[in-house]
Amino acid sequence: MKKFLCLFIAAAMLLPLSSCVSSSPEEPAASTDAALLIYNSETDADNRYLNAPDSITELDNVFIWHKDTLGTFYYYDKESGSGGVLCNKPDCTHDSEECGGISGGARPTVWYYEGKLHWLMLRTQNPNERLISRMNLDTTQREIFMTIPDIPELGIPLIKTFLHRGKIFLERRGQVVEQGEPKWRYHLSICDVITHDASEEKTVLEFDAEDSFSQSVLYYCLGSRVYILSNYNDGEYKLMIWMYDIEKDSLSVVTDITFENDDFYYGSFKVTPEGDIYLASFPMTLEDNVKVCRIVDNRLTDFMYFEDEDFIGATPFVCEDTLLAIKQIDPGTSNYRIWVKDYEGNTLYKGELTTGFKEGHEPGFQCTGCNYIYASKERIIIDFIESKLVNTEPTASYDYLIEYEITENGLVEKPLVIAVDLSVSNI
Questions:
Q1: Dist CA 205 CA 361 (whole Å)
Q2: φ/ψ of residue 307, rounded to 5
């Protein structure tokens, strides 16, 4: 572990408000400089993992995975195939704050910048502020990078940060009570990563809703543009997409669609350089075919269906160069079938996922979710959670981060990280 971290650090070091808001939906103009829209791993948020519940950072030679529920960093070395808790201390048992892999209360908000991991954590001795900590990839030189005071007038906690094109984005979200009435509030602000001074924090977007957001607010970054998507109820059921332009320091409404009821839910979305927007639409009933939608002239249109009785009621996802649908075959198990297509509708893989990663593990665990999934034309990344339940409450868990290579002969399964929490189980 220590040898890997030292070698990887050495290699990595060699690698080269209130904003003015346009209230009417507008189609973002195609960039006159296509180079500005090319992904830069040193400056840009990684859309593959930006909205993942648990942070995944993928670099050239390594995966870094943070389990929010365990407060622990894990790694997988692509070259050697080794992995485990991200800690360089010999004989460490990884169960105390002395462990280099223990984050100290991180949220799903880890980002990599100038050779260091940065993450949002809570400062227990002062509940009125949050910290962004950082450390080297070998877990040395851990320090506080930024202190972020709460904003009392907002009344909501900071729950997520991410870095894009030199700006730290800070998301606050939660329930507030005003004049005896509960409602939900969302607030997004930015500050500069170089100064990382919270006193320079500037509001980008804020809105209130009558009830809880049906999903977490999602983000998609493209060049200097950051797209923000949410559907919520503010007296009307809405699907909103805003676009904040970092270079112009301007916010505009890209999509403003009103529904008669709350029967539309999204799971992921993508924006092309030409301004095309694709969204995964959850089926409203278990009898519906799943589909991916496209927004045209501020209207939702059907783009592609996954029409097969084996995929009725499945969950769709939109990825960078693929679309997919996944469905649990047997409730309570990690037995899933998946269908991966490209944007032309060609099937890249359709079938069941193997579960060899479970061999030798304790019996009696139920799959309580597919926490995250992403597919390219070459591979599938998926996060399974299996828990031992007592009175419907999880008392122990296995969390699996698995990569499947898509080949002509089917899938090749590769376990990346297996995170185990048996601390409160009786097994």
A1: 46
A2: -95, 100
Residue with token string 């959670």: 385
- List 183's β-bridge partners, or say none: 176
Structure tokens at 409: 């002969």
Place of tokens 């996922």: 353
How far is 373 from 176, CA to CA, in rounded Å? 32
Q: What is the pLDDT along the chain (427 residues), one digit of tens a residue?
A: 544 444 433 334 333 333 344 445 655 554 445 656 788 888 899 999 999 888 899 999 999 999 887 888 999 999 999 999 999 988 898 888 788 898 876 666 789 999 999 998 866 567 778 889 999 999 999 999 999 998 988 989 898 999 999 999 999 999 898 888 888 999 999 999 999 999 999 999 999 988 776 557 999 999 999 999 998 888 888 899 999 999 999 999 999 998 877 666 777 999 999 899 999 987 666 667 789 999 999 999 999 999 999 999 899 999 999 999 999 998 878 889 999 999 999 999 999 999 898 888 777 788 877 888 999 999 999 998 888 877 777 778 888 999 999 999 999 999 999 888 765 433 3
Cβ atoms of 381 and 371 closer than 8 Å: no
The verdict on pTM exceeding 0.85 is yes
**Which residue matches tokens 């193997």?**
354
In angstroms and rounded to an integer, the radius of gyration of the C-alpha atoms of the chain is 22
Residue 232, number of CB atoms within 10 A of its CB: 22
Q: Which residue is listed with tokens 């040193």?
A: 42
- CA gap 297, 185 in Å, rounded: 28
CA-wise closest residue to 320 among 239, 407, 378:
378
Measured between its terminal Cα atoms, the distance across the chain in Å is: 29
**Dihedral pair phi/psi, residue 6, rounded to 5°:** -65, -45
User: For residues 384, 280, 346 and 352, what is the CA-based torsion angle, rounded to 10 degrees?
Assistant: 20
d(CA 411, CA 379): 8
Kindly list the distances between the CA atom of residue 308 and the CA atoms of 290, 314, 327, 409, in Å, as whole numbers in the listed order: 9, 10, 12, 22
Place of tokens 């009392």: 152
Dihedral (Cα; 36, 196, 86, 370), 10-degree rounding: -60
| Integer angstrom CA distances of residue 59 from 133, 166, 212, 357 | 20, 19, 35, 23
